[in-house]
Design a protein that fits this description.
heterodimer, A: alpha+beta, Proliferating Cell Nuclear Antigen, 2 domains, 9-stranded antiparallel sheet, 5-stranded antiparallel sheet, about 15% helix, B: alpha+beta, 10-stranded antiparallel sheet, 9 helices, about 25% helix
Chain lengths: ~280, ~375
């Protein structure tokens, strides 16, 4: 691989190096959270976490574990920077984003520290492209304070069933209402659009429902415009965990398998809308 | 009303609603003892479609206690319920439709695989019964064909084409695109297809004629007939009288009634229509070049001052039709007509409910209303 010809002195200067034989494994995950231009990168020994936010009401996180990378070197406890996600995705697909089997873009991503650009070395078919993306000081992402001990209700669904419901949702509705209950309707998605209202009721004991842990009835509304971006992650995923805490905050955790069968996680947090009156 | 459709009939129901959406923007529902009627009409009231679903179409059918109940709603709302036709077949096991007249609510519940339940609550408004007064038995010309034949024929016309002309003789049918007289002749592309009577399951032509109607609405029915594998029957008379397209099964009947362009609405069109008539007499091998000659003749004729008339063949039977439309219907028809409407045959309006009109197959001896211009000509002759 031509990338390996880089001199040792160059390698030494970087505080973060992450290499992938197939850049698509990274670009697909990042596309799932690319609803805003800016992404916050946070790298630790465990791997890479990329965060995108919308109005401090919606937060998306993509987790790429260190094991996914063929080479992962980090010389500090944590490395943080902010980049333009649109530009980064354009660079990752600079060879055209071919889906032909056997043809893939190799990636080496390097960062030298505060003030330095994020440098991408991309190689496909013997051609090497170097991209340098300006970095910014990372903003402090909001802490939704969503902890497992505070989770009221939790279900794990096969993504296919949720994909079908989301594709049919009435987008003229301002909100998506989620009802989770130990008794009927168990797990319900509701919209209130121009045509009228619609309800999607999932039984708790079907093959689609892998886990059903609901301790008390809870109905919350979330702005449809905030949840629409999450459908990209849903499309990639095979399973989704839906959790709500006592404040009505929504956590959607998507399990995504890449081309090589490895697992990544994409996570969406969403604030609830105004208080819901029981219907 | 409460009715349940299961299995493949859910898809048929979805296809029917999809066909109706090609006609108009509102869906009219009228549940009666002998089944559920779904109807639609386009904004210019030149096309009307009706699906009669018999109680046997449903696994369970409970008619409303109020026989005069009927309602309408935006067809987009209902279409959204059956959004993904392909997944319907795979995942929907049962479809339940409930009409609650007290709450003005229509509830459609889809019972899907894995116990997934989709409930749609739609609002509706009360309305008068939407009826078209048409009579298939009184039409002089009848064609019946498998949907494949008609779909393959219509495929040759571009989706943007608005109107199509159908001409018949004793043993063949011509289908061609309708070109407006004022169209730039150098840009107009003529497409013509000729079908032998042997292509049809049933071919009963008692008079040579030529009718022009909208293609978009026809496609709506073709889609349904093709997916249902049911033959299409076509009933028509003369220019200005509506053409009726019918699809019938043991448990359902669909009728599409399309207005046709009247010869008298444009004198130039009258000339064109007459000059096209000789095509019927020519041998089939020469029909392409002959049509070009006719087209050129039509162009030359239209430039002459004042219209000229080709004599009608003395062998052609003369149809005397009485027009007994009531004054009320005529006034309503005139009021609703858009100013630049080409199709001047108006064949229906709102009809007050009477028991005789609730028959599954709407039969009426009353002839279709025509515009005043046509009536004047009748009086003259």
């Amino acid at each position: 691989m031509p990338l390996s010809t880089q001199s040792q002195s160059d390698v030494d200067q970087y505080i973060l190096i992450a290499s992938l034989d197939n850049a698509r494994n990274l670009s697909n995950i990042l596309k799932a959270i690319s609803f805003k231009d800016h992404a916050i990168f946070n790298a630790t020994q465990n791997g890479l976490k990329v965060t995108v936010e919308d109005s401090k009401c919606l937060q998306a996180n993509a987790f790429i574990q260190a094991d996914i990378f063929q080479e992962y070197i980090i010389k500090e406890d944590a490395v943080g920077f902010q980049v333009n996600l649109t530009v980064l995705l354009d660079c990752l697909t600079i060879f055209g984003g071919s889906t032909v089997p056997g043809v893939c873009t190799a990636l080496r991503m390097c960062y030298n520290g505060y003030g330095y650009p994020l440098t991408l070395f991309l190689e496909e078919g013997g051609v090497v492209t170097v991209c340098k993306i300006n970095t910014q000081e990372p903003e402090e992402p909001i802490d939704f304070d969503f902890c497992s001990t505070n989770v009221t209700n939790k279900v794990i669904l096969q993504s296919d069933s949720l994909k079908e419901a989301f594709s049919e949702l009435d987008m003229t509705s301002e909100v998506l209402q989620i009802t989770m209950s130990p008794s009927h309707p168990y797990f319900r998605l509701s919209t209130f659009g121009n045509s009228g209202n619609a309800h999607y009721d999932y039984p708790k004991d079907s093959d689609m429902m892998e886990l059903f842990q609901c301790t008390k009835i809870q109905t919350n509304r979330y702005k449809m415009s905030l949840l629409k971006p999450s459908t990209k992650a849903l499309a990639l995923s095979c399973k989704v965990s839906v959790r709500t805490d006592s404040r009505g905050f929504l956590s959607l955790q998507y399990l995504v398998r890449n081309d090589d069968g490895q697992i990544c996680f994409v996570e969406y947090y969403c604030c609830p809308d105004e208080e819901v009156e029981e219907e | 009303m409460d009715c349940v459709a299961t299995g493949a009939n859910v898809k048929v129901l979805a296809k029917a609603i999809h066909s109706l959406s090609r006609i108009g923007e509102e869906l009219y529902l009228e549940p009666v003892d002998d089944g559920l009627a779904l109807r639609s009409v386009n904004s210019s009231r030149s096309a009307f479609a009706s699906f009669q679903l018999s109680p046997l179409f449903f696994q369970r059918y409970q008619a409303p206690t109020d026989q005069s109940f009927r309602c309408k709603m935006p067809i987009k709302s209902v279409q959204a319920v059956f959004k993904s036709l392909s997944s319907l077949e795979r995942s929907v096991e049962k479809c339940r439709i409930q009409l609650n007249s007290e709450k003005s609510r229509l509830t459609i519940t889809l019972h899907c695989k894995h116990g997934l339940l989709k409930t749609h609550n739609l609002s509706f408004q009360d309305c008068e019964s939407l009826q078209a007064v048409f009579d298939k038995e009184s039409c002089t010309n009848v064609l019946q064909a498998q949907p494949r034949l008609m779909v393959d024929t219509v495929l040759h016309f571009p989706p943007s084409l608005e109107e199509v002309n159908l001409s018949v003789s004793s043993d063949r049918v011509w289908l061609r695109n309708h070109v407006e007289d004022d169209a730039d002749s150098s840009r107009a592309m003529m497409t013509e297809l000729c079908l032998s009577s042997e292509e049809f399951d049933h071919f009963a032509i008692s008079s040579q004629t030529s009718i022009t109607f909208c293609l978009k609405e026809l496609r709506g029915l073709l889609g349904f007939a093709e997916s249902s594998c049911l033959p299409i029957s076509m009933y028509f008379d003369e220019p200005g009288s509506p053409v009726i397209l019918n699809v019938t099964d043991s448990v359902l009947e669909a009728n599409f009634v399309l207005a046709t362009l009247s010869e008298d609405s444009h004198s130039k069109n009258h000339v064109n229509s007459n000059t096209k008539r000789p095509d019927a007499e020519q041998p089939p091998d020469d029909f392409m070049s002959d049509d070009m000659d006719s087209f050129l003749i039509a162009m030359e004729t239209s430039e002459l001052p004042g219209p000229s008339h080709v004599p009608t063949s003395p062998l052609q039977p003369i149809n005397n039709r009485k027009h007994s439309a009531s004054d009320d219907e005529e006034e309503e028809a005139l009021a609703e007509r858009p100013p630049n409407k080409k199709f001047c045959s108006l064949f229906f309006g709102s009809v007050l409910p009477t028991p005789s009109l609730t028959n599954q197959t709407i039969q009426s001896q009353e002839v279709l209303a025509s515009d005043s211009e046509d009536e004047n000509q009748t009086e003259t002759s």
